[in-house]
Design a protein that fits this description.
Low-confidence stretches: none
Order of helices and strands: EEEHEEHEHHHEHEHEEHEHEEHEH
CATH class of the largest domain: Alpha Beta
CATH topology of the largest domain: Rossmann fold
Helix content: 25-40%
CATH superfamily of the largest domain: P-loop containing nucleotide triphosphate hydrolases
Structural class: alpha/beta
Number of domains: 2
Shape: elongated
Length: 310
């Protein structure tokens, strides 16, 4: 559905996107992640025809975004981060207008507007002025706009931006439903949402792709996947030295607590579990031990590992 090859966007001396390549298969839900200024929105704008690339190529359903821009855009439903809406129009009136702009006519307009109103849960507000709607309903109108011409691909830039937890949950469920019949590329900062709904994740930083894989595979490959925390009451230098000599242990960092207790963060090789060895070590030396657990890595750990500046 999406094929990107060496795509670059340069502004004077600044390269916002630096020769990235990736693909999205038909039917996938792909999370497109990165810190602020990483090049996410610039990439999405190039894919949707809003910005021309400086170099490189990208195709949408086989159509080149530059040479066959109109055909490519017909395949895309794009919801930008800050949804532009005509606030003095009613919801149904606005969606009809947008459908006309996207080339629909007659009965197709009535059918598709009715379908997206139903799909996006807008039946109760379809006659209301857009300026009277809550942030959550405005996002739904933006999503309905992206869907009204029945595109094969949905590109969503921060679709839950500014929403409260209940509204985020509603939009998440809506995206899940849409993913049954559409290919979805979604940019968001809410990493837990990506873990729940995305088949694959692409992480960009500094205009370059840092990783592209399933959330489970990315988590498994990260250093954080082998992180333990243990609290022991003993000389921290002795404890850290002994734990550091255990098999598969890469690094031990002590942190002083109260009453002689110390918390040790232990980094181990990915896929290993050194809890039993540490417990046996504490027993052997007679160290009081009050806590020992293995950190369950998340996509947030992967994101921080790949994009942190230290």
């Amino acid at each position: 559905m999406i094929e990107v090859n060496e795509l670059t966007k340069r502004y004077a001396r600044h390269e916002a996107v630096r020769g990235i390549s990736f693909s999205v298969k038909r039917g996938e839900i792909v999370g497109f992640l990165g810190p602020n200024g990483a090049g996410k929105t610039t990439t999405l704008r190039m894919l949707t025809g809003y910005l021309p690339p400086t170099s490189g190529t990208a195709t949408i359903a086989g159509y080149d975004i530059y040479r066959h821009s109109i055909e490519a855009r017909r395949k895309i439903g794009y919801m930008p981060e800050n949804v532009p809406l005509y606030e003095d129009m009613r919801v149904r009136e606005y969606l009809k207008f947008r459908a006309q702009l996207k080339g629909l006519s007659g009965g197709d307009i009535r059918r598709r507007v009715g379908d997206v109103i139903d799909t996006c849960g807008l039946e109760g507000v379809k006659r209301k002025m857009i300026k009277t709607l809550s942030k959550g309903y405005r996002q739904r109108v933006g999503l309905a706009d992206a869907l009204v011409h029945d595109p094969e691909l949905l590109i969503l830039d921060e679709p839950t931006n500014g929403l409260d937890p209940n509204q985020i949950r509603q939009i998440r469920e809506l995206i899940r439903q849409l993913a049954q019949t559409h290919t979805v590329l979604i940019s968001t900062h809410i990493l837990s949402e990506v873990e729940m709904i995305c088949n694959r994740v692409i992480i960009i930083d500094g205009g370059k792709i840092k990783a592209a894989d399933t959330p489970a595979n990315l988590v498994g490959e990260m250093r954080a996947a082998g992180r333990l925390q243990v609290e022991i009451q003993a000389d921290p230098e002795v404890v850290a030295g002994a734990v550091n000599r255990l098999p598969h242990v890469k690094k031990v960092t002590p942190e002083a607590l109260d009453e002689g207790w110390n918390r040790y963060t232990v980094w181990c090789d990915s896929g290993t579990d050194s809890r039993e060895r540490i417990a046996n070590l504490a027993s052997q030396y007679g160290w009081p031990l009050r806590s020992l657990f293995r950190h369950v890595a998340t996509l947030e750990d992967v994101f921080v590992e790949l994009t942190r500046r230290d």
